[in-house]
Amino acid sequence: MKPSAFEYYTASTVAEAIDLLERYEDEAKIIAGGQSLVPMMNFRVAQPEVLIDINGIKELDYIRQEDDEIVIGALTRETDLELSPLVQERCPILLKAVSLIGHASIRNRGTIGGSLVHADPAAEIPVAIYGLDAKMRVVGPSGERTLEPEEFFLSYLTTSLEPSEILVEVRIPVLPQKTGWSFVELTRRRGDFYIVAVASILFMEKGGVCKEARISVGGVGPTPIRAEEAEELLAGQVITDELIKKAGQKAAEAADPESDYHASAEYRRDMTRVFVQRGLTEARNTAKGG
Amino acid sequence: MAERRRITVKVNGVEYEREVDPKRLLVDFLRDDLELIGTHVGCEHGFCGACTVLLNGRSIRSCLMFAVQADGAEIMTVEGLAEDGKLHPLQEAFREHHALQCGFCTPGMLIVTYELLKENPDPTEEEIRLAVAGVLCRCTGYKQIVDAVMAAAPKMRGK
To answer: Are residues B74 and B96 in the same domain?
Structure first.
């Protein structure tokens, strides 16, 4: 199908975009990469009256390190994240997550900010962001706010952004050397939306003991979740196969998925167990190797 | 009715200036306004890849972009591959290896594999399969396409 008619505006600064959002509020939609919005418009699931194109806001396209954070402008293309030596060296879990998004032609257009704001419950970047404890910087007419993942994501396709706010930046803490990590997902075909995705991060201390573990799971609810009981089980322990097995079971208990066209709730829960176990095994191995 | 916009785009080296409705999809602009019908419209929601073109050197799905957004851009479509009536080595290889039957996906296949070989002149079979995974082909089973790209790679390196 074809999209319905809309008024088209371009913004070349964040201030201009906010001005336009204030003027049109709920009638307006921001378009960045458009890889989720345009299909929805073509299906007429989304029929914004006004489209605000932010692709010209060059000030939102950057990847840099500031002290112990990787700081990424919201308009940074997914392909540019993959090509960034900084992301490759200092944030490989994000690189892995991004490489699993759709196909190259999608990543050439799609942006990190667009993926976060769209808040699709089967998107890779939000799962990585939950695991990394990254922060989202949003700007609106009355100033700016910095939000934790749990504050930013509210539900299916819903964030806590106000109608005239815009996401401008993602701030990701750099993981210490020798931190174990993995990003694994279950898809029926390469590039499909996942059924379950798991990001695992193991902060290690001397003697092969895991100081802190983070496990975030996507595909089991309206937003990604952190499998907190499983994380607690691993903290302060040497990660054994037996512990990984138990952590997978705990994570599956924490998941509260719904059945849909792609997978039943039972299958999603069981695959949470399997993929948390696989993910933790891989993370433990990278910690050893790293 | 939304206001029409005047845009300038360079497609396959030729500059075009046209007025477009903002809701005009880039693929419809290419096919219906510029009459470059080599690019195909398939699913119109970014799934099939038949409409893939290069935008400023990178492959994109032209059904997931509005023509008005391409103002000032350089685009290459499948028509841009052949030079002086002579098929591109990649097209020759597709013909040689029977890498198409119905031909619907072919413009997308050629563009994504052209992009692949430009960035990675000596790809493995696995890398080729990854590149073409984003374009749906219901005829060939992909084998002949992979064979064609494997065969084209050394010819393009030698070019």
So the answer is: no
